[in-house]
Amino acid sequence: MAEEIINRVANSKLKVIDLEDFYPSGRRVLFDIKDWLLEGLVLRENDFRAYVKEHDWSQYKDCYVALHCSTDAIIPDWAYMMISIELQGYSKSTVIGSLERLESILYTSIISNLDLSVYQDLPVIIKGCSNKPVPVNALVLLSQKLKPIAKSIMFGEACSAVPLFKRKK
User: Fold this and answer.
1) Ranges under pLDDT 70 in the chain
2) What are the distances in angstroms from CA 131 to CA 65, 127, 134?
3) Which of 57, 80, 117, 150 could form a disulfide with 146 if both were Cys (CB 3.0 to 4.6 A apart)?
4) How many CB atoms lie under 10 A from the CB of residue 129?
5) Where are the domains of the chain?
């Protein structure tokens, strides 16, 4: 007769946090303003204002938008502010920078609002592999927030976790 397979990880106090579970749904858009600049380098205020006024902002409904300029143009702060004002009411969030920065800012907000009290005095594994773009910064922020709470912090999978922190007795 075959012996029953027992999942010792499932039966242990070990808790796994997968940041992918908190990934906010919604399309990500990298909004490059270079096409609104003269030769991709010079912002002419009247032309820029016309582009902003005529642009269909509704296409960014429920999107996360990262504003940037892919050329070496010097963009005045008000230009990004003007675009963000137009996006307000359409986009879920608007940031200045790359898509990586967008993800980092989104996860910073998510982690700062997480209630981690359920991990009090427990061993925790922060899952490492994901199919969604979880930024390394999110892993760092989560580990810092867990340190005063968790008994221990590991990274990876239960079968091959890398120990990061263990509270002294």
Assistant:
1) 1-2, 4-12
2) 21, 12, 8
3) 150
4) 9
5) 8-24+115-166, 28-91
